[in-house]
Amino acid sequence: MTQTFPMLPGECWWGGCVNQGHLMPLNEKSRVLMDPFHGRENDQFAPLYVSSKGRYLWSERPYTLRAENGVMTCEGAGEAVLSEGHDNLKGAYLAACAAHFPFTGTLPDQRFFTQPQYNTWIELGTDQTTDNILRYARGILEHGLPAGILMIDEGWQQDYGVFEFNKTKIPDPARLIYDLHQMGFAVMLWVTPNVACAGPHYYPLRDKGYLLRDKDGKIAIREWWTGFTAVLDLTHPEASRWYHGELRRLMECYGVDGFKFDAGDVYFYQDDDQSHVPMLAREQTAAFNEIGAQYSLNEFRAAWKFGGQPIAARLHDKYHSWDHFGLNTLIPHTLLQGLLGYAYCCPDMVGGGMIGCFDKGQKMDEELFVRWAQANAFMGMMQMSVSPWRVLTEENAALVVEAMKLHASLGEKCYALAQHAAKTGEPITRHMAYAFPGEGLEGVDTQFMLGDDLLAAPVLEQGAKEKNVFLPRGRWQDWKGQVWEGGRAVTLPVTLADIPHFTRL
Known about the structure:
This protein is an alpha+beta fold. It has 14 helices and 30 strands.
């Protein structure tokens, strides 16, 4: 089905795919294709676009959207409905939320918002051993960082689909997790829906009908970053029950607190796959989301039409870069998460989560790392991986600790905003045009609001000595105590230690 919707004069649109948030807003000059069917964008998606003119587009099924010459063309498996008359961006979003993805009233674990997260991936890679994990955890505490949630990433288990610790690397997992708990950490494990073809569970799962099959009825073998694997058919109730059983066993036997749910992306599926419940490839991601939503400590990178649900949605891995899909995308992507209903959002790891950017011997951009931590400090969650004390000078590592302390000081505010989101759907981090309609802020993506009264304007440019900030109408107090009249742009001098932010009076 193909439909066209002309844009209104001056109209701006946001939606579709979080990983393309830096392309927003779409307007009359845009020429872009948003394709959740065939693209390999890895992030959160929704069949939703919201407008600064109080309109929104929604379809129950996936569709592509092309914006060109002031016209949006939708093509997909179902009808896209245009809803109008909602005044502005905030009105459009809240109307769409109420009609199509009302929030459940539940939310992820409070610790996501009040404590930092630490992920072993960049620091350890797949070398997840008892000694390495404990060394990493002890280093966190010894260098003045607070305990929080510690995620043990890929490399802990025997093989894909085998939910048991590799005893040659972690011979006593219960003791490891006990020790981490004693240090004050909650512990999450990295898991996927993948099943190794040479692993011990492949044939039993195949024979029970728990594995996805392709259009010819053969086991679907899909490419994963380390090779090829089969994929669990999580639309099958017994396969889902088996998966939950394995996860709960890890919790009961070893004290695991929760899980980082990786993979589940559209490229693991095909529209003509034979699953227990027939569905399009994109819709298979939501079946995986439903698994993880039952655990209060969960994290997802891939999600489909799962706004309003209690999942912690993390941005896709970013490059250690100022302007190449790195720090420059942190704010626009986080803001789009909120406008698609993924309110409980987590930025990528401080400094970037693309492990190839951190090969041994590669020089760390210390200024970038510090500015990344500062930008992240005002967001609902904060996740570290690279050890600041290993890659930064003592002075710069101290600046990162200060940013983390600032984030910790906002923990109760972030959790209160998360509770508010669970009731109303309102984002925790908010676009300026959402919070201040009619002030011409649609194109501003270098600053944002945390709730209604805290404006964050982190420094995002290398070597910057000043920061340009647009203050909406009203009175604002900056981080140094000076009061400003809003309704104008201001330029302020900054040093590397400065984290520009303003409180509405």
